[in-house]
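--- STAGE predict ---
source: upstream dedup step, 1 unique chain passed
mode: sequence only
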Amino acid sequence: MPARRVIDPDVMLRGAAMHYFRHSTIDMDLLATEMAISRATLYRMAGSRDALLGEVFWALGRIFLAEASAGAIGTGADRVLHVSRLFAEMVTGAQQLRNFVAEEPQTAARVLLTTGSDVHHRAVGAQLEIFGQSGIGGDPADLRQRAFLYVRLMESVVYSPVLGVPEMDFDLAEPALRALLPR
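--- STAGE serialize ---
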């Protein structure tokens, strides 16, 4: 019996991300062929197509959040909102994501908005970090609830097509986002 090919999880994620950039989706058969591994190996490593999409989306989200955080100005609520605005602009401008949502809206909703993947949970954790970096503190349990609500509202803005509504303007959501931030 031939030995199983071992592939580094980071290599798999990079390969999946590159595949996603080329195709605006992940075709597991084609990805396995591109990576010169079997479908079984790919599924064993990724768990499922949804899980792999979640990892790719989170990797992209982390990049967007880092860029938005680096470009944000101000402190406190103003900085949080500036990070959010920059992030929203990046996500809504990502053509591959727009294509994916148009072609696979149910999959996009499942991966981006539910607990079926870790994207939402990670986004709440990232939002808590943004609060802290911006000088917003308080009771940890209260901040976690605020971060959860803040992320849900941001998801309504950046993923409005997944929710079946026209593109949402950040300016419309900004007062509600600001209201969620402790004073």
